[in-house]
TrEMBL record:
The lineage of its organism: Eukaryota, Viridiplantae, Streptophyta, Embryophyta, Tracheophyta. It comes from Dipteronia sinensis. Residues 1-30 form the signal peptide. This is Lysosomal Pro-X carboxypeptidase. Belongs to the peptidase S28 family. One of its GO terms (molecular function) is dipeptidyl-peptidase activity. Keywords: Glycoprotein, Hydrolase, Protease, Signal. One of its GO terms (biological process) is proteolysis.
Amino acid sequence: MAATMRAPRIQALWLLPWLLVVFLTKFASTSPLKTIPKLAVHHRINLENPSTSTNLNPYNPEDHKTYYYDQTLDHFNYQPQSYATFRQRYVVNEKNWGGSSVAAPIFAYLGEESDLEGDVEAIGFLRDNAARFNALQVYIEHRFYGKSVPFGTRENAMRNATLRGYFNSAQALADYAEVLLYLKKHFSTQNSPVIVLGGSYGGMLATWFRLKYSHIALGAFASSAPVLYFDHITPSNAYYSVVTKDFLDASRSCHNTIKRSWGDIDRAAATSNGLSWLSKKFNTCNPLKDGSELKDYLDTLYCTAAQYDRPPRYPVTVVCDGIDGASQNSDNLDRIFAGIVAFRGYKSCYNLSEFFPSETLQGWRWQTCSEIVLPVGRGDQDTMFQADPFDMKTYSDSCKQDFGVTPRPHWITTYYGGLNIREVLKRFGSNIIFSNGLHDPYSSGGVLENISNSIVALVTQQGSHCLDLMPASQNDPEWLVRQKNEEVEIIHNWILQYYQDLFQSY
């Protein structure tokens, strides 16, 4: 397939680069409401200095060709404006594909709330296993992210309330269906089985795609997908309870220092010169305007360390080693700052808005204010954080202020299910892998027990967020190697059974 291939309805749209400054646009929340922890597959900070020297199958950009599909704006309406199209980016790797003559499978990675470029490099599971399956690799970008923004810039798209209404998971799933059916037609491979894969929010999408588009996808591999963190199926404080447990397991003294630090920050911020003193103590790039800025930064740092607590670095241990290893004459906040330095390294100053790209923050803020309502909160004294219970009214008021809409907290379970998932899916669902690592705070909202013989839960005690999607490395611990092998074997059995059924039909 030549790199100049285009879908039949391609438009020429000029897309400006997305804004790189986090939370400096008018679409960032201006309310005091704390943002929901991000569901990104990989984390930007963890990839600042990526080492591919130990990867068993390093990423080769020459193997991956980028194309654009002229995608339908609105799949569920027939008004004239619904037929408008926009360019949706996808990437294909044909290196190991066995071809249509043998109905070789298609592995399709469903993009989540981020630019596709980072995913193609960071997600190693497809290219690590493509040769074994002779599989065609496909990566599809989620609408409104990266270069798949309808009609111009992300800033304009997010400002337009009508256009923004097309930014939802159901439209994204229909996008993936159109692209996959187009590719099967283009490659003349109608009999090739499709396995959809995704991590985090993308893992939710993979699960929902298998349930909604079972005529297209033979199976789904959903890594770290908190499909049960909706409609209060999972306790609100579950996410922060796991973060707390991760730190407590690493070091009780570290946990206790963090728990005491919130009050120390509040007391310092309340003094006449306290914010200036805190700014100097934590070497912030910009003067603090409120103590909550520093607390939100630390909250995100600890959650990030826990969520992406991956070998060989294990960020939770790094943070705690920094806190516990501070000099004996250090006060509590000196120790907290030592944890920041251990995790982030020595810097001329520390940017309190450094953790996620602005496009992820903008897009995810909209998605969680419309349909992806994750009721994450904290009770009093049940985590190492200050109490911050989830309050739907406060949440709704914040979303109404930012976007002029009220969230729909019951829509996900209405449209995709989740309530009584075991009883429901064992009757009509099949061929889904739910993988979760218990160091991942979002595992608390994941499927942790087998539902049937073909809807299986693979759980690892030491695993973290989407770790099994990362490239295979010479340094992978034995338990991770076993987990990946088990996932591959399950997918192999799905495809083998498919071929047996296919041949019997001829």
